[in-house]
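Worked example

This section walks through a single chain of length 223. The input is the sequence exactly as stored; nothing has been trimmed or padded.
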Amino acid sequence: MRELLSPLILTFELAAVTTLILAVTAIPFAYWLASANFRGKSIVESVTGLPIVLPPSVLGFYLLVFMGPHGSLGGILAKFDIRMVFTFEGLVFASVIYSLPFMVQPVQAGFEALPHSLKEASYTLGKSRLRTFFMVMLPNIKPSLITGIVLSFAHTVGEFGVVLMIGGSIPDETRVASIAIYDQVEAMNYSTAHFYSAVLFVLAFAVLVTVNMVNRKISGKTI
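Given that input, the structure is written out below as tokens.
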């Protein structure tokens, strides 16, 4: 049973850690994109959104080159005897890059939809920029935050090409559910592949229902 559930447990651990990191880093980044106006902003937004349109195998390949022992990042880490490829930590790094736009884009849209006067009123009342961000801006974009968090989690759960390139299929280390499905199909063990697929299918459906219900409730609409 432990061997059967291990890919699912590892998948949810990866998704949880990735989502937490994105919540800490991508939300301030989205706020900066929504507030800043500079030359080259469209380029930054395009680079951020690349994982949406780029084939996962392409992104995975370049991350593999970048993180490998002879790559820019991997070469530096190798000097400290730190390895990223075929490790859980490497999967987390790759997953953060891969799921970044799924957190940034809905949150950025939420910030951009807020009236500028809301922030100005907060400053007028003497609130600092940091307090305004946490006490005024974030509470007013709850639907966008929930959407970004849930989609980032679900997108990480379902990734395949990137994790295959970066992590391979090491039991209890990098063998997540999507990779386990592939392995079981190759071994013609369809019953186990169906089990993993059914779990991910139910999760994906539950994610969509949750996002819709929460957003409707926050918006004050009748479910």
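What to look for: The mean pLDDT is 89.
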